[in-house]
Amino acid sequence: MMTRALPRRPGTRLTELGFGAAQGGNLYRATTDEEFASAVDAAWEAGVRYFDTAPHYGIGLSERRLGAALRQRQRDEYVVSTKVGRLLVPSPGDAHLRDSDGFDVPATHRRVWDFSRDGVLRSIEASLDRTGLDRIDIVYLHDPDEHWEQAAHEAVPALVDLRDQGVVGAIGAGMNQSAMLARFVRETDVDVMMCAGRYTLLEQGAAGDLLPAAENRGVGVVIAGVYNSGLLSRDRPPADAVYNYEQAPAAVIERARRIATVCETHGVTLPQAALAFVRRHPAVVSTVVGVRNEAQVAETVRRSGVVVPEELWDDLAAAGLLAAPPGRHSPAPSD
What we know:
The chain is α/β, with parallel strands linked by helices. The chain has helices at residues 33-46, 61-70, 117-131, 148-165, 179-187, 210-217, 250-265, 270-279, 294-304, 311-318; strands spanning 3-6, 9-15, 17-20, 50-52, 79-84, 86-90, 109-113, 136-142, 168-175, 192-196, 220-224, 242-243, 246-247, 284-290.
């Protein structure tokens, strides 16, 4: 599988397709240890070498499962990213309840926002313990939307120190918005940003702020949420499609269906085009897709390998369905 290096950290190379491990934390419903392990095995066999997780995903379950699945593999052959900003604090009094943040796990811990230096250090130490790995390759600030001051002035300097010491490889932030990510790029010493849902075949808001800033500063961008929470994950979006984690408005579903129709005239499906589109921007170094089992890995890899005709982007732009002019994009260099 093709890889791209982070411009500022050329020793860190990401496969063009990354493994999103939120489902390994029982996102929305339970996933067995065996299902998740087989998903990692299938991804590995397909050439995927970038794996993303977070303490938030299943209150640490995703990190534990991912570490168990990767620990026996050659450490220099893969890249792991995790996140800081939510500390997991034991909450034994709630252990009989289920987690209220979308993960089907017991509420044994509560999440506490903390972007302080101490919080960052504690979070990374805990992640290393849960994964059993000797290092974390990429650390993202996780959803610091309401915490700019502390994240920019305490968390980032702490991560810079850890990067300089070789404890972590590269640093950045991961969010569901692009404006603050662009601000991190412009005002702090970061290497890579993870942008979820704001640069997709359906919407290209990040093309106006994050992507040009990243390209100008030599910061890599990892695209997550490429299907906009599921709306673009089927060949023809259903009436009950989800968008931004909620029921999609009728107008948004109709727009997605119009995009799907144009895709069909070029012999490709909506999800195939969704994966191909985001990789065209030169600032994009990888696309992370959440997968739960071996079958989902196989389907994602198949979709990712489809060659999409260049004329599709022109036709979508001509139909008013693609906000970013196709001429601004070019195939991302890879090896």
